[in-house]
Amino acid sequence: MPNEHHTVFTTCRYCESCCGLAVEVDAAANRVVRIRADKENPGSWRDVCNKGLSAHEVVEHPQRLRFPMKRVGDRYVRVSYEEAVEGVAADLRRIMDAHGPDAIGSYIGNPVGFGSDIVFALGLIDGIGTRSRFSASSLDQNNQHVVSEALFGYTFVPLSPDIDSCDYLLLVGGNPAESKFGWLGSASDGWNRMLARQKQGAKIVVVDPRRTKSADGADLHLAIEPGSDWAFLLGVLTVVFRESLEDRSAVALLPGDHIARLRGLVDLVDMDALSARTGIPRTAVEEVARDYAKAEGAACITMTGVSQNDTGTLGQWLSTVLDLVTGHFDQPGGRCWDAGFVNMTDFATRSLNEDGVSRVRGLKTIMGCRSVCELPDEIDTPGEGQIRALIMQAGNPVVAGPDGAALDRSLASLECLVVVDLVQRESHRHAHWLIPAPHWLERDELPFNLANAQDRSFIQYANRAVTPPSGVRPEWEFFTDVALSMGVPMLGRRGFNTAIRASRWLAKTLGRPGLAISPALLERVAITASKRASYKQIKSAPHGVAHAEKRFGQLAEFRKGAPILVAPEELCDALRRKLSEAPADDEGYPFVMTGRRSLHLMNSWLTELPNTLKRERENRCEIHPDDAARLGVADGDRVRVQSKTGAIDLPAEITERVRPGIVCIPHGWGSRVFSPGADAEPIVYGVNRNLLVDNRTLDPFSGTPKLNSTRVAVARVDS
Question: Sign of torsion, CA 535 537 540 543?
Fold first, then answer.
C-alpha cells in the first residue's frame, strides 16, 4: 500500500515572525516527511530559517517526554495523566493552604507566548492568586515594555519598521541577517527587503561590537563598546538638537516641558567624552545624526544587543526619542504600529499590568511578572510569600538567565517543581513532576496574540500536521484540569469552573467538541470581537489573510490624541546620573564579554538536534588576533573565561570580527538534556556563558541583567 502523503499548511511558532510552512506528512505513519517554506504565504516564506524547517526533529526527539512522570527518590516513574493532575493539584493545594498563594510561583518561557495556550497557563496562576510570577521577557523584552508604558501609556506597543519605504536604517545591537528581523515587532523577510532598498539608494548603518553578517552588508559598521549604546544614541540626539536638525512640526506635537527637558540633557553632553565611552569617532556620530535627520524615511531599530544591559531601557528610550524628534515615528519609512487583526496592545495592558514590587528586592512588576534575576532570592529568603513551589512552562532560566548556578541551587530546595515541556532540560533536573507538552506541529490554533506584531496586517490559522503521542495532552487542558482539581477559579473568575464543566458536558452529550471552553473558543471570540475578519474566513484561507493597505498614524488614532510623554523625568534623571559617572575600573577583568545568537538555536534549546549539529557542535570564545597574541592563545586552544561570578572553559576562535578588548561567546549552549526513567547520560553541547553573569547588576527600570557587557579575564588553559 503506497504512502498517503499530504501537505499541511501551518505557521512556525518559534518566534513572532510566524513564518508560513508547507509540511509534508506521511498520514499512515503519523510522521512529518519534510518541511518547506510555504511559497503561497504572502510575506514570510522567503524568511523561513532552519529552526522552522527542522521542527520535526523536536517532535521525534529521542529524549522527548511522552507521558507524565513523578519523581520518587532519585528516579522518575511513569504515572497516568489523571494521577499527575491529582498529584500536582494536591501538592500545590497543600502548599497554598499552609503558606498562602504567593508561595506558588510560575515561570513562563519564551515559546509559550507564541500560541494561545498562554491564556490557560495564566488562567491557572490567576486562579491561585499568586503574585510570584516570572517570565523570560525580563531577559530581553522588558525594556521595551517600560519605554512603551512611559511614552504611550501602553506596555505592549510592537513597533515594526516600514522597510519598503526606508531610506536610512540605523540598526543598533541587532543582526537580522542571522537572527531574524523581529523582536516584538516583526518584519517578514525584513533583511532581504532592506538590502533591496539599499540597491535603490537606501543606507544601512550597523552599530555592534562585533562585525556581524548584517554589518558585512551595511554601508557603515561602527564597532561600539558593549553597553554604551545609550551614549551613542545620546550623541546622535545631541547633534540633532545642536545643529537644529529636528523636525519642527513633529516637535510641536510633543509636550513643551518634555522638549525642554531633552534640550537640557543635550546641554550637559560632552561629545568627546561620549566618543571615548563608545569607542566611535565623534565625526562618525555627527555624520550619522545629519544623514538620519535629513533622510526622507528612517528607522532606528534597537534590539537585544541594546536590551541585555543595565542601561537597556535608556537605549530603547533614546532610539524612540530620536525617531520622534526627527519626524520619522509612525511615518513612511519609520517604525509604525498596526492594530492588526486583533489589537493586543489594549488587551495586554489591561490584563497583564499589575502594580506592585517584588518581596525581596523591591523591583517593579512589569507585564504582570518579576525579573528572573530575583527568582533565587524569592525562593531562598524566609518569610511571608517565600516561594515553595514553582510551575515552569517551556522555560530554561538556568541557561537563559544569569548566574544559573545560584538558580540551580534554589530550584533544588523547592518542595514542588512542576515542569511542562517537551524534554527535561537543565532547569528541570530537580523537577518533582514532568508533564509532557505537545509541539506546535501537533496543535491546531490561531495565534491571535501575535496578530498586531507584524509590519503587514496578517493572520493565519496554524493547522496541526501530526497527532501527539497518546500520553501527551494539550497544555491548556492540563492547566484547566489542575485548576478544577485544586478548586481555584480559572482565570480568577468565580463561576468560570462551573462554565467549564458545563461546556464539557454539553460538548460530550452533543458530540460537538467545539462547544467546550478551549483555546479554539477564545480564538473565535477574539476574532469576532476584532471585526476585521471572520473566523470562518481565516480558517478557510490555508495561506493566511492579509490586509493590503498600510496606514500610518494608527497609534495616534488609537490613543485619541493623547500626548506622547517623550521625556519622563525618571529616565531623564537616570541619564543625568550616567553622564556624571566616571568610567568603571576593570578591577582585574580586562575584557568585556558580549554575546550573539545563532540562527540554528532558539535561545537555550535546539543545540542537540541533528540540524544544529551539522552546522556547529559547540560555542567558542571569539578573540581578536592582537589580544590572542598577548595571551599566547592560538585558534582552537582552550581558554578559561572568568568573571566575579563564575568561570567556564571553551575553545578559542581567533577572529577580526570582534574589536580588541572584547570577547564574544554565543548564547544558549550548555544545557543538558536528560532521559528521565532511563540510565542514559544527559546530552550536552557547548558551555553556558551566562554562568559568568551576576544576577544583581540589573537595569533599574526593567530588571534586565547585563548579559552583554560583563567584565571577564581570559587565560589559556594548559593541556
Answer: negative
Least Cα distance to 664 among 269, 141, 209, 172 occurs for 209
Q: Which residues contact 596 (CB under 8 A, 6 or more apart)?
A: 175, 178, 179, 210, 212, 664, 666, 667
Span 699-717, pLDDT tens digits: 999 999 999 999 999 999 9
- Nearest in space to 390 (alpha carbons), one of 424, 363, 415, 421: 415
pTM equals 0.94
Map out the domains of the chain with their CATH numbers: 5-59 (2.20.25.90), 69-140+343-546 (3.40.50.740), 159-336 (3.40.228.10), 585-716 (2.40.40.20)
Report residue 466 CA to chain centroid gap: 27
- Select from 627, 605, 624, 607 the least CA-distant residue to 615: 607
CB 704 within 8 Å of CB 140: yes
CA distance 135 to 111: 11
Report the alpha-carbon distance of residue 372 to residue 135 in Å, rounded.
7
450 vs 342: CA distance, rounded Å: 8
> Quick count: other Cβ atoms within 10 Å of Cβ 66?
15
SS3 state at 394: coil
Residues 6+ apart with CB under 8 A from 560: none
Torsion angle defined by CA atoms of residues 387, 388, 391 and 394, in that order, rounded to the nearest 10 degrees: 70
- Report the SS3 class of residue 241: helix
Q: What are phi and psi of 25, to 5 degrees?
A: -125, 135
Question: What's CA 56's distance to the chain center, in Å?
Answer: 22
Instruction: Tell me the three cell numbers of residue 557.
Output: 488614532
Grid coordinates representing 462 are: 496554524
pLDDT in tens, 112-150: 556 677 888 889 999 999 999 999 988 988 999 999 999
244: three-class secondary structure by DSSP: coil
> Which set of grid coordinates corresponds to residue 3?
504512502
What stretches in the chain show pLDDT beneath 70?
Answer: 1-3, 111-115, 181-185, 351-353, 548, 719
Residue with cell 529568603: 381
Q: Kindly report the number of other CB atoms within 10 A of residue 563's CB atom.
A: 13
Cβ pair 597, 175 in contact under 8 A: yes
Contacts of 277 (CB under 8 A, 6+ apart): 225, 228, 231, 583
